[in-house]
Amino acid sequence: LFDRLSVFVGGWTMPAAETVCADQDLAQDDVLELLVSLTHKSLVVPDGNGARFRMLETIREYARDCLDKRDRSRSVRMRHRDYFLTLAEEAEPYLEGGQEQPDWMMRLDVEHDNLRAALGFSIEETADEADLRLCGALYRFWAHRGHAREGRQWCIAALDHAASRPGTSFRLKALHASGTL
Fold first, then answer.
1. Are 35 and 17 in contact (CB under 8 A)?
2. pTM of the model
3. For residue 155, which of 124, 128, 125, 119 has the smallest C-alpha distance?
4. Geometric angle at alpha carbon 122, from 121 and 126, rounded to 5°
């Protein structure tokens, strides 16, 4: 679990840890117990009210090196990317306005570093459309939170990454996001 938690940048929630870190070798039911153990050893620190956890950056870098040596990095990073893609797509309809918009904006603010990591991994390491989907889902967040330049750079990188693939609705949405930003 220690190694796998290193994919999170800026912290994580318990549901995120259970979803991203569990697989055939680590049961979801064991994540809480192991996380408590890591907290007692001061390798993981609870943030604020205990709803989020984080690692000190030097410890996270060490854990990341350990993960990379175990040849599990790609599968864990893929689950991390998929988790945050799901979060972004779930948030998307609420970013247009309404009562729930501020809550979703705050939630994406808290997870912004993880969203960046998911986008970076998707652009650098995968050949699917997750990067385009993330850009399409997040552009309103970037626009409303003053990250228009960063969002546009992500959109351009994702579009460049997808340039050799046939156009899809996700590409169109990313083009719209880039143009809007």
1. yes
2. 0.94
3. 119
4. 110
Query: Angle at the Cα of 15 (from 12 to 19), degrees rounded to 5?
Result: 95
Give the C-alpha separation, 54 to 163, whole Å. 36
pLDDT one-digit tens code per residue, 141-152: 999 999 999 999
Tokens representing 24 are 């055939």
The token duo for 62 is 């060490």
Strand partners, 26: 23
In the sheet that holds 52-54, the strands lie side by side as 12-13, 52-54, 45-47
The whole-angstrom separation of Cα 38 and Cα 18 is: 15
**Cα 37 to Cα 47: distance, rounded to the nearest angstrom:** 16
pLDDT given at position 13? 96
The radius of gyration of the chain from alpha carbons, rounded to an integer in Å, stands at 17
Q: How many residues does the chain have?
A: 181
